[in-house]
Request: fold
Amino acid sequence: MKRVSMNRDTMGLFAAAVVAMFGIGGPISAQVRAADEAPPEAVSRYVVGTRLGYITCSNKYRDYVEKYDRFALVNEGQTTVTGSPPSDEDYRACVQETLVKGRGMYGPATKQTSTTASKAALMEYQTAWESSLSNLGRAGGEKPAEYRTRQSKVQARLDELQRKVEAQPKASSR
Reply:
């Protein structure tokens, strides 16, 4: 009896997978960008690299903010400070290194853009990315909730600009 119920469960999972893959009404029409419509390689590498760099540094800053918040909570109302505040060196070093790498990828990316609109979109993204990375830390600190709110706005703006860069026509190198 156990073997029959396992087979029924397996068949049920298989049927669910088939329905998920092909849908009830027929094959799924995936929205896949044609190879000619994809951004140039250097532009893609630049966008992916800068976003990953930003995410890495913002995660380090988030960790710093959370540690500082715990430190402040432990010492709130105390006459003698317990422990020492966390260092911001890790996220600051990340920001500096990421800015250098991103600026290094920007030149090759601009060389692969052909239109004025493409160059403008890339420059707008670069400016917003550098600004968001440079302004990652707040003077005087901030609470984790404040950081999360600010971070979601920054991410939304970078997402918007990234879509704008990726929507630009590919440079014709033929």
Residues 41-75 form the longest helix (35 residues). The chain has a mean pLDDT of 81. The radius of gyration is 24 Å.
